[in-house]
């Protein structure tokens, strides 16, 4: 190459000779009639294209400037796979009872490259239907069993293999015909959704029948381990509806078709069943109470929400009427909630007539089937017509009020007005009838902590279960309660409200969203009972304290997870000493104490050491953790199975030193060769060697005289050396620690 000249990159020319398959010699080589071809590649990525089957052999390669070298393999034999072929044979499938053909058993034999796809048409009087068969190998048996009677023609139309697609099949050998009269059969028609049946109601299931009419059908109903059998004969249609008796027990039922028989008289056993559930209760409807009664007195013309109590599954359809206003007129309410209402604007006694839920008819609770609406009497100038007084013989009774409420009459006075006068007349006892007023004043409800001043401890990390603060309620339930929670660092308290408290003692659970680290003051702010009376608590009332502590923590002082026997494992603790540390060693749970913020353990034995939790003195909170350390046994090695051996070797001979290891591979070991001990002389180290092994034993061949001793051993995790230590030990003995 001339200096400064750039070659034409990677362009090159290759030459080959080609011989078609039918012109190859008997030995499969090129003959004299081969064809020589060449290809110019502009880059190293250009590849020639070949299309004819035959033998191709590279003969030369060269670039613009140099001849190249052709290496093996230099020849390639291109073969085209054969086109797919199909041959079929068939035999009748006959009914074992009637002996009539019910289908064909077709053997498919194929030639080509699997897998195959075989297509065929099914031609009947009602039209043509195309089907496919996937064949993984070169043989398959196809079972053709129509469900309907008639003349069937099967025409195999095309075949695919892994190489060729849509290879057309033609000829009479690919057509099969048969007159089919299948045996009787029956199947339950699948429901588009799960059957949800109602208690005390029948269930209807539809059956499709196949064969020659009339049919005889046998089926059974199974529930709670009990089986009830039924039979229906002389069915003259291809469709039959099974209607059960009213199902009086709830739970899971199974209805199974057991056998069917058609005109041929052959009894065919069936395996068609369906499972369904029957609800255990009927939907129920009743009126709810307003102020403890099924009656309310409202302002005339005002719409009233009559509370409904419904069980079942929504939506509900409630039929009702007004017994005092067109009792023959039935009204309907569609309710989506179990605690819905009927909106009424007429006075009278309303009665629930009927109820149903999303599917099932229901039952009306007759003891709570009516609700009465009455109007508050319109005010009049006369005392007898006032809306807040009712006549009780010689006196007027005013409706109840709450202690401390402001009413139209002085609620703090209860007694008889003995004198009355105005600007024109003085009091005249002969012409005056005393006016007696009575009114019941209900005591205000109250709420107080059962343990006022109590301090409750919470752990920040253990807020999975709500803590309970008991509160005593006085009044008539249900109560509504308003509780105030104030953090020591916040000037603004948070309020939590609770409604429908049905008991006189309430276990108050503080929502976790209202708690943070530190001290909280919890007090009752307001209470209200079912009579509408309420009482607010002034500031400074009895309260309880809730203190939320942070949990202690533990962290390893080293990030590594693998330790050796004899090493020290250290952890750092945060919190208030003393601490209790919970751990497991090889699956056994244990507990230790630490008086400082450091926790140490000596790795005495191999195994898995896991810290599972820690608690401290200040909070008594236990923090859960999972810090694992793996403690490994020290490695060991022995030579010649730990026995002392003397081996005499002749000049030019050798001896095998077998090192056996325990521990975790790979192993790294150091051994010495010393002079043999003679009487009156000390042994001297002649040489020190280091070796490695990925296995649990290694053989070293030696032809040198001397005493061999292992002085250091190291595996994947741990190491040990006799040099500098006490005892040393002979190298041909087991070193175990």
UniProtKB/TrEMBL annotation:
<dbReference type="GO" id="GO:0006999">
    <property type="term" value="P:nuclear pore organization"/>
</dbReference>
<dbReference type="GO" id="GO:0017056">
    <property type="term" value="F:structural constituent of nuclear pore"/>
</dbReference>
<protein>
    <submittedName>
        <fullName>Putative nucleoporin-like protein</fullName>
    </submittedName>
</protein>
<dbReference type="Pfam" id="PF24527">
    <property type="entry name" value="Ig-like_Pom152_9"/>
</dbReference>
<dbReference type="GO" id="GO:0070762">
    <property type="term" value="C:nuclear pore transmembrane ring"/>
</dbReference>
<feature type="domain" description="Nucleoporin POM152 ninth Ig-like">
    <location>
        <begin position="552"/>
        <end position="630"/>
    </location>
</feature>
<dbReference type="InterPro" id="IPR056544">
    <property type="entry name" value="Ig_POM152"/>
</dbReference>
<dbReference type="InterPro" id="IPR056541">
    <property type="entry name" value="Ig-like_POM152"/>
</dbReference>
<dbReference type="InterPro" id="IPR056543">
    <property type="entry name" value="Ig-like_POM152_9th"/>
</dbReference>
<dbReference type="GO" id="GO:0006606">
    <property type="term" value="P:protein import into nucleus"/>
</dbReference>
<feature type="domain" description="Nucleoporin POM152 Ig-like">
    <location>
        <begin position="282"/>
        <end position="370"/>
    </location>
</feature>
<feature type="domain" description="Nucleoporin POM152 Ig-like">
    <location>
        <begin position="9"/>
        <end position="76"/>
    </location>
</feature>
<feature type="domain" description="Nucleoporin POM152 Ig-like">
    <location>
        <begin position="635"/>
        <end position="720"/>
    </location>
</feature>
<dbReference type="InterPro" id="IPR037701">
    <property type="entry name" value="Pom152"/>
</dbReference>
<dbReference type="Pfam" id="PF24312">
    <property type="entry name" value="Ig-like_POM152"/>
</dbReference>
<feature type="domain" description="Nucleoporin POM152 immunoglobulin-like">
    <location>
        <begin position="80"/>
        <end position="182"/>
    </location>
</feature>
<dbReference type="Pfam" id="PF23664">
    <property type="entry name" value="Ig_Pom152"/>
</dbReference>
């Amino acid at each position: 190459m001339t200096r400064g000249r750039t070659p034409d990159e990677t362009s090159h020319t290759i030459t080959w000779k080609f011989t078609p398959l039918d012109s190859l010699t008997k030995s499969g080589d090129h003959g004299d009639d081969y064809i020589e071809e060449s290809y110019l590649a502009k880059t190293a990525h250009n590849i020639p294209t070949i299309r004819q089957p035959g033998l191709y052999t590279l003969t030369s390669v060269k670039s613009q400037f140099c001849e190249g070298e052709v290496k093996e393999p230099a020849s390639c034999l291109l073969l085209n796979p054969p086109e797919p072929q199909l041959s079929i044979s068939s035999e009748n499938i006959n009914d074992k009872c009637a002996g009539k053909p019910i289908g064909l058993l077709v053997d498919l034999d194929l030639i080509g490259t699997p897998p195959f796809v075989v297509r065929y048409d099914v031609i009947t009087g009602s039209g043509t239907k195309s089907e496919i068969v996937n064949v993984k190998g070169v043989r398959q048996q196809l079972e053709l069993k129509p469900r309907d009677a008639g003349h069937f023609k099967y025409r195999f139309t095309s075949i695919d293999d892994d190489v060729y697609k849509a290879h057309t099949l033609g000829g009479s050998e690919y057509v099969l015909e048969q007159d089919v009269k299948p045996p009787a059969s029956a199947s339950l028609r699948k429901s588009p959704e799960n059957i949800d049946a109602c208690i005390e109601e029948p269930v209807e299931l539809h059956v499709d029948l196949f064969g020659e009419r009339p049919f005889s059908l046998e089926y059974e109903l199974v529930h709670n381990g009990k089986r009830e059998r039924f039979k229906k004969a002389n069915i003259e249609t291809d469709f039959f509806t099974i209607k059960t008796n009213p199902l009086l027990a709830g739970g899971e039922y199974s209805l199974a078709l057991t056998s069917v028989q058609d005109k041929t008289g052959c009894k065919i056993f069936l395996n068609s069943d369906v499972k369904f559930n029957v609800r255990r209760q009927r939907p129920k409807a009743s009126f709810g109470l307003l102020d403890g009664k099924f009656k309310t007195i409202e302002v005339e013309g005002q719409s009233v929400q009559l509370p409904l109590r419904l069980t079942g599954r929504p939506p509900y359809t409630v039929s009702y009427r007004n017994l005092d206003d067109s009792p023959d007129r039935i009204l309907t309410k569609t309710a989506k909630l179990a605690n819905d209402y009927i909106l009424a604007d007429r006075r009278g006694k309303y009665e629930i007539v009927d109820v149903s839920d999303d599917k099932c008819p229901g039952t009306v609770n007759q003891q709570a089937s009516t609700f009465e609406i009455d109007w508050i009497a319109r005010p009049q100038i006369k005392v007898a017509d006032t809306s807040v007084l009712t006549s009780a013989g010689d006196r007027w009774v005013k409706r109840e009020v709450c202690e401390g409420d402001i009413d139209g009459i002085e609620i703090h006075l209860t007694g008889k007005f003995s004198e009355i006068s105005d600007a024109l007349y003085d009091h005249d006892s002969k012409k005056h009838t005393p006016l007696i007023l009575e009114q019941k004043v209900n005591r205000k409800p109250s709420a107080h902590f059962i343990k006022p001043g109590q301090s409750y401890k919470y752990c920040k990390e253990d807020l999975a279960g709500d803590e309970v603060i008991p509160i005593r309620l006085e009044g008539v339930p249900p109560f509504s309660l308003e509780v105030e929670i104030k953090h020591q660092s916040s000037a603004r308290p948070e309020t939590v409200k609770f409604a429908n408290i049905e008991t006189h003692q309430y276990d108050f659970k503080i929502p976790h969203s209202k708690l943070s680290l530190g001290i909280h003051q919890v007090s009752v702010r307001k209470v209200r009972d079912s009579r509408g009376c309420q009482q607010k608590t002034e500031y400074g009332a009895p309260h309880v304290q809730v203190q939320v502590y942070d949990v202690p923590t533990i962290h390893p002082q080293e990030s590594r997870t693998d330790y050796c026997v004899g090493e020290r494992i250290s952890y750092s603790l945060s919190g208030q000493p003393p601490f209790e540390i919970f751990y497991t060693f090889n699956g056994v749970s244990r507990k230790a104490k630490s008086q400082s913020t450091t926790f140490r353990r000596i790795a005495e034995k191999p195994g898995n050491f896991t810290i599972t939790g820690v608690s401290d003195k200040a909070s008594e909170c236990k923090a859960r953790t999972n810090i694992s350390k793996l403690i490994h046994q020290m490695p060991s090695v022995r030579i010649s199975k730990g026995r002392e051996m003397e081996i005499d070797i002749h000049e030019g001979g050798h001896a095998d030193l077998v090192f056996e290891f325990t521990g975790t591979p790979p192993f790294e070991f150091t051994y010495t060769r010393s002079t043999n001990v003679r009487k009156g002389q000390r042994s001297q180290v002649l040489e020190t060697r280091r070796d490695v092994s990925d296995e649990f034993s290694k053989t070293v061949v030696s032809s040198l005289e001397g005493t061999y001793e292992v002085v250091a051993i190291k595996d994947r995790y741990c190491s040990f050396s006799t040099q500098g230590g006490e005892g040393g030990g002979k190298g041909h003995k087991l070193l175990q620690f």
